[in-house]
From TrEMBL:
Residues 1-11 have a biased composition (Low complexity). The gene is Atp23. One of its GO terms (biological process) is mitochondrial proton-transporting ATP synthase complex assembly. It is an enzyme of class 3 (hydrolase). Keywords: Hydrolase, Metal-binding, Metalloprotease, Protease. This is Mitochondrial inner membrane protease ATP23. It comes from Edolisoma coerulescens. InterPro entries: Peptidase_M76_ATP23. It comes from the Eukaryota. One of its GO terms (molecular function) is metalloendopeptidase activity. Residues 1-23 are annotated as: Disordered. Its EC number is 3.4.24.-. Belongs to the peptidase M76 family. GO terms for cellular component: mitochondrion.
Amino acid sequence: MEEGAAESPPAAEKKGAEEEEDDFGYRLFPDRNKKPQSFLVRSLFTFHNRCQLMLRLTLETNPYARLLLEALKQSGCTVFNDRHFSCENCDGCVGGGFDAATSQIVLCQNNIRRQSHMNRVVTHELIHAFDHCRAHVDWFKNVKHLACSEIRAANLSGDCTLMNEIARFKFGLKGHHQTCVRDRAIRSILAVRKVSKETAEKAVDEVFDACFNDLEPFGRIPHNKADAKRAYRDFQNRDRYTANL
């Protein structure tokens, strides 16, 4: 998740009487528990309008998002704009989240201000949606499952492209992409789970190799839009190759 997962499971298990319950990241998405605003109010709210317009542009033109939408459809999980995306106000540190309880992607309208950011957040969360669709992911109790999806999302969404890392003033040579993926996966876990940094690091390290090398549905690490377009084209041709066998 983009440093946030909106999920609504039961209370977390307690290790001790004084341990605070894990809210599973809901504190980052305060609008999740509010009564929906009327259409008129939302239409007059600039952030909401801008979010909806940027979302539509992403879904229609971004090759990362288009590939994932088609992969979800082929997996039996068709995504509908009005049903599976929600523009909401969030905590100041997050761009979006995936609500596994409702199979809905939350887009933080007060934090997403650029189309490139919207593209990246939607892609990141669609990867979580794809994992949710194709696998029995235990988002609530198994931190390794969460770690695996966070690794895949950081690896395949463009979060760790060279330009994004330069914008963060992070530079590296050999192995920097892997370092970025690991760091962002740990950061996302810590944002949505009340676990220690050591627990998050251990979970990520234990599943890193397998999950980093799981490139579905892209078939490659799309380092830029050109890579994503080639991956999308290859994905569209998969059925044609199979049909001719």
